[in-house]
Design a protein that fits this description.
- There is one protein chain.
- This protein has a domain at 17-64.
- Helix 3 packs across helix 4 (46-64).
- It is built from 4 helices and 2 strands.
- With 80 residues, it is mostly helical.
- 52% of the residues lie in helices and 5% in strands.
Length: 80
């Protein structure tokens, strides 16, 4: 039986290497988790570094409020 679209998406998601920009645990640094490829792409340009810094600021702010999730905008406009 063929996999559904959702199952295929989950397979792709789990195969990605997720990390923070520093490589440390998010609980210790307050940074956002994202696929390693996305982090590297963001770190490679000034605009991307600014976007990553803003996302980390939003994540830290949400964490201080006791929220588990934060809408950071890193994936905004990405086709998934």
């Amino acid at each position: 039986m063929a996999k559904t679209k959702t199952q295929k998406s989950l397979d792709r998601w789990t195969k990605q290497e997720w990390t923070t920009a520093s490589g440390k645990k998010s609980a210790d640094t307050g940074e956002v988790y994202a696929p390693k490829k996305a982090i590297e792409a963001l770190k490679s340009s000034a605009k991307g570094r600014k976007k990553l810094a803003e996302a980390n600021r939003k994540k830290k702010e949400a964490t201080k409020k006791g929220e588990q999730y934060a809408s950071t905008g890193i994936h905004k406009g990405k086709k998934r």
